[in-house]
C-alpha cells in the first residue's frame, strides 16, 4: 500500500474513533420504557411486548416466522423457475453456491443413513436452511410497533421457546417416521428409547440463540457500549449461531434417523441362517 494511502487510512480511523468517543461522552442517555431486567426477562419469556396481528396480540417472533417462511418459499420458487433450468455443466457462481448448499445436506444424510437417505436429505436441507436464514434474519433489524406503542426489533423466529419446541419435536417425529418405514412397530420403540432427544434439541437450539440475543440486548441497552461494539457482537454471535445450530440439529437428526431406520439385525440373522441351511442341504 502506498504511504499516502496508509496515512489517509490511519487518519480516517482516528477520526471515526474520535467521533465515537465524543458521542459516548456528549450524548445524553435516552429514556428507556423498561429496565434492563424487564428487557432481559421479556427476551426469554416474551410476556410484555406484543404485536397486533389481525386483531390478535401475538409475539413478535411469530411475525418473524411468517416473514422468514415467505422469503424461503419465494426464493425457492424463483430458483426453481428461473435458475435451475439454466444450470450448466460448468457451474457459475450462483449455481455453485446452490449445489454446494444442497450437496452438503445430501452428503450429510447419505453418510449417516446410507440405506435410506433421500427423504432425509430433503428434510435436513429444509430444517437447516430455516434455522440459518431465521437466525440471520435478526441482523436486518426490521422494526415493529407493539400494542403499547413502542418500537422493537423483530427477533429470530427460533429465539422463542415455542418455535424451538416445534423444531425439536418435528425433527423427532421425522426420525420416528424413518423407523416406522424401515422396521414398522419396532421402529417406534427404537425411536421412543431416545425420549430425551426432542427436549435436548429444543433447549440446545433455544439456549444458543437466546444467549446471543441476550448479549446483544445488554450491549444495546447501555449507550456507552452502543457505538460500534453492537455491530461486532451482533454479527459475530448471529453468524456463528446460525452456522453451528443449523449443523448441529441436522447432524443429530440424520444420525438418529440412520440409527432407527436401519433394518433390524434379527432379520439379517434369519437370512444368514437360511443361507447356511441351504448350503448344508
List the helices and strands and how they pair.
Layout: H1 3-26, H2 36-45, E1 51-53, E2 56-58, H3 60-83, H4 93-112, H5 118-136, E3 143-145, E4 151-153, H6 161-183, H7 185-192, H8 197-221, H9 229-260, H10 265-280
Antiparallel strand pairs: 1-2, 3-4
Helix pairs in contact: 2-8, 3-5, 4-5, 4-9, 5-9, 6-7, 6-8, 6-9, 8-9
Q: What is the total tally of β strands?
A: 4
What order do the SSEs take from the amino end to the carboxyl end, as H and E? HHEEHHHEEHHHHH
Low-confidence stretches: 266-279
Radius of gyration: 25 Å
Helix percent reads: over 70%
DSSP strand (E) fraction? Answer: under 5%
Give the overall form. globular
Oligomer state of the chains in this structure: single chain
Strand order of the largest sheet: 1-2
Question: Explain this structure to me?
Answer:
The protein is mainly alpha-helical. The protein has one domain. Helices cover 72% and strands 4% of the residues. It has ten helices and four strands. The strands form two sheets. A two-stranded antiparallel sheet has the order 1-2. Helix 4 packs across helix 9 and helix 6 runs antiparallel to helix 8. The chain starts with a helix and ends with a helix. The relative contact order is 0.12. The C terminus is likely disordered.
Amino acid at each position: 500500500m502506498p504511504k499516502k494511502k496508509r496515512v489517509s487510512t490511519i487518519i480516517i480511523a482516528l477520526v471515526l474513533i474520535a467521533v465515537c468517543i465524543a458521542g459516548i461522552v456528549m450524548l445524553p442517555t435516552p429514556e428507556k420504557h423498561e429496565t434492563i431486567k424487564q428487557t432481559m426477562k421479556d427476551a426469554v419469556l416474551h410476556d410484555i411486548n406484543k404485536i397486533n396481528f389481525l386483531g390478535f396480540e401475538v409475539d413478535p417472533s411469530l411475525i418473524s416466522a411468517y416473514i422468514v417462511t415467505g422469503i424461503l418459499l419465494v426464493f425457492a420458487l424463483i430458483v426453481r423457475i428461473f435458475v435451475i433450468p439454466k444450470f450448466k455443466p460448468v457451474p457459475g457462481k450462483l449455481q455453485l453456491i446452490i449445489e454446494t448448499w444442497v450437496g452438503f445436506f445430501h452428503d450429510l444424510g447419505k453418510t449417516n443413513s446410507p440405506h435410506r437417505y433421500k427423504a432425509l436429505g430433503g428434510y435436513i436441507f429444509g430444517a437447516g436452511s430455516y434455522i440459518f436464514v431465521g437466525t440471520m434474519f435478526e441482523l436486518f433489524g426490521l422494526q415493529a410497533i407493539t400494542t403499547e406503542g413502542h418500537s422493537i426489533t423483530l427477533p429470530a423466529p427460533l429465539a422463542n421457546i415455542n418455535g424451538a419446541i416445534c423444531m425439536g419435536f418435528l425433527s423427532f417425529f421425522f426420525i420416528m417416521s424413518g423407523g416406522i418405514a424401515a422396521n414398522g412397530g419396532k421402529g417406534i420403540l427404537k425411536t421412543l428409547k431416545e425420549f430425551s432427544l426432542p427436549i435436548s434439541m429444543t433447549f440446545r437450539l433455544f439456549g444458543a440463540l437466546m444467549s446471543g440475543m441476550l448479549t446483544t440486548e445488554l450491549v444495546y441497552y447501555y449507550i456507552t457500549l452502543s457505538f460500534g461494539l453492537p455491530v461486532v457482537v451482533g454479527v459475530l454471535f448471529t453468524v456463528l449461531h446460525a452456522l453451528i445450530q443449523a449443523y448441529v440439529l441436522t447432524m443429530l437428526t440424520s444420525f438418529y434417523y440412520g440409527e432407527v431406520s436401519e433394518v433390524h439385525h434379527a432379520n439379517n440373522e434369519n437370512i444368514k441362517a437360511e443361507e447356511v441351511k441351504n448350503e448344508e442341504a
